[in-house]
Amino acid sequence: MDIKDNNKVKSFLDTTISKVKNKDMHLEIREELLNHIEDKFYFYISLGLDENSALEKSLLEMGSSEDIGEELNLVHKKKLDVFLMALVISLSVACLTILFSISKISTDAFNLKSFYNSIFAYSLGFLVLYITYRFLNIKFLYKYSNAIYYISLFCLFLNLFNYNLYLSIVPKPMITILLIIPLLISINGILIEKPSATFRLIIPLAFILNLNSLSGLIIYLVCIFVLVFKRGSKLNFLGFSFSIFIFGFYVLFKNNYLIYRLTSLLSFSNPESSGYYIYSLTKDVLSNSNLIGQATNIDLSSIPLINSELIFTYIIGRFGYIPFAILISLITILLVKVFKYIRSIKNSYGKSIVLTAFTMLSCNFALTLLCNLGFSPPLNTISPFLSSSKVSIFSNMFLIGLILNIYSNRFITDISFNNIDKKSLNFSIKL
């Protein structure tokens, strides 16, 4: 007797699940309850009861389906991580305070009107975060990984010919970083389905290299190396690393401009290099700054703050090293919190997505910090949550919303992803 097809069992499971509002957990709950019923059923069969009596006794022992459903609804209710949200809000308020300070000293690059635009951008950013957290179905992202991958590649391809998909309001390096997000999300699903498909990771490099976005290239490379290392075997990882090395060497050998750009960036501390002005400026600000309060003998309006790439340099010069250390600590705590989420997530796809989001946020933070402290050339990177760039604000809020979404459904197992029905996937609001 296959009890999962029994009408009484189906009725019990349907009634129980109907009480659980978190639909993402329905399949897991059904499987778990069915396993409990089967265990009890076969136990009573072993005691000598007939099938009907064993089933009746098993369902009776399970208890009221409505009561169980109410209890499971409380257990699996989507809960927002208040601590992480408090960190995001604190960093956003700190950023707006800093941007207001910048608007008082800057006339062209960032003025009071720009500050009001930033307030509006952060408001929309939190809306993006909420929609992503509350309504995005990550099973949709998983199921359509291939489609998302090819759409992202097509957008990168269009960008090679200066087809600005964003009405000419977004700098090209920012477009690259924006497109890398869906690209990496799709790659997570592709690698889970087929871990050996590492060649699909190399194809986007041809487009990213031709877009002259070194920051996008670094972030993409770090993320895919982490993914291949976590998902594949050591032999697969070594083969992939060797392929990237050969591909990179070939591209550099064929492109003299890329060699020139690379050597110029690496010699950023040389007075004759193109990046020396930024390097010299950051060193002057750092050497004249105080523990707290504004730096002496420094004209803060001379710091190029377009899109807030040198936001940390400005913070140190305007507010001092202690406020800078506090902000760095808040961002570090946020990243550590996100990293800790990874262990508690039960499904491979969610775990992989959160790892990718963590890697992207960490790379942006580290590269921006190194540039602001004079340890690396400017790479058009922007620290998470400390920016006036709309692309940066929206992308960071989307990543945090995605992380919170996955963490709130952390008990979903791989069973859900192995039994996805495309027709049931949508973005409709769950009432």
Relevant terms:
19 helices; elongated; 431 residues; disordered C terminus; mainly alpha; 2 domains
What proportion of the residues form beta strands (DSSP E)? under 5%
Helix share of residues? over 70%
Round the mean pLDDT to the nearest integer and report it. Answer: 81
> Could you name the ranges where pLDDT drops below 50 across 5 or more consecutive residues?
165-170, 422-431
What is the total domain count? 2
Shape: elongated
- How many H/I helical runs? 19
Judged by helices, strands and strand pairing, the structural class is: mainly alpha
Distance between the termini: 38 Å
Counted beta strands: 0
Roughly how many Å is the radius of gyration? 26 Å
The ordered string of helix (H) and strand (E) elements is: HHHHHHHHHHHHHHHHHHH
* Biggest beta-sheet profile: none
